[in-house]
Amino acid sequence: LLALENSSLSETVDFSKKAIFDVDLDSSRIGIDVGEQLTMEQCLYGIMLESANEVSYAVAEHISGDVETFTDLMNKKAKELGAYDSHFANPHGLPDPNHYTTAYDMALITRYALGIDGFKELIATKSISIESNKCTYSIVNKNRLLSEYEGAIGVKTGFTGKAGHCFVGAAESDGMTLISVVLGSGWGTAGRQRKWIDTKNMLNYGFQKYDYFDICIKGDYIDTIPVNNSYGESIRVCT
Question: What global pTM score does this model have?
Answer without folding.
Answer: 0.89
